[in-house]
Write a structure and sequence with these properties.
The protein is mostly helical. The protein has 7 helices and no strands. The radius of gyration is 17 Å and the shape is globular.
């Protein structure tokens, strides 16, 4: 059987992906989610997902890209991509940021998107030169 292909237009409707979503939704505790994720993902995949979430939190707090990369070890590409999805994604990061222990100030920063972060990053770089 050929490998499954996800595209921007079809990924949400893919039956295998829907099954994954249902499995996650069936978990009722953080421990159950952790156990399920460990069963279906490698440690590298879990680390990458965890890193992206941490980057999203820092982006939402208005942290400069440079500081985010230093704190997390994430690449410029990862930080930029996460910032784009915090701003213009499917709303998953925004829902998490709203429901987690973040202040409403975090959402103000996130709603300004990567344009704010890029401007903030530029100020930070200018002050260090």
């Amino acid at each position: 059987m050929a490998k499954k292909t996800f595209t921007e237009g079809t990924w949400k409707k893919d039956p295998w992906f829907r099954s994954l979503c249902a499995a996650l939704a069936a978990c009722t505790t953080e421990e159950q989610v952790a156990s399920f994720l460990r069963d279906v993902a490698t440690l590298s995949e879990l680390k990458a997902l965890s890193e992206r979430l941490e980057v999203a939190k820092l982006v939402a707090n208005g942290t400069t890209y440079r500081v985010i990369m230093e704190k997390t070890g994430a690449s410029t590409t990862t930080v930029t991509r996460v910032a784009r999805f915090v701003q213009d994604g499917e709303g998953g990061y925004q829902r998490f940021l709203r429901s987690s222990h973040h202040t409403s100030e975090s959402l103000v920063h996130a709603s300004k998107g990567h344009h704010h972060a890029a401007a903030h990053r530029g100020k930070s770089m200018a002050s260090k030169t």
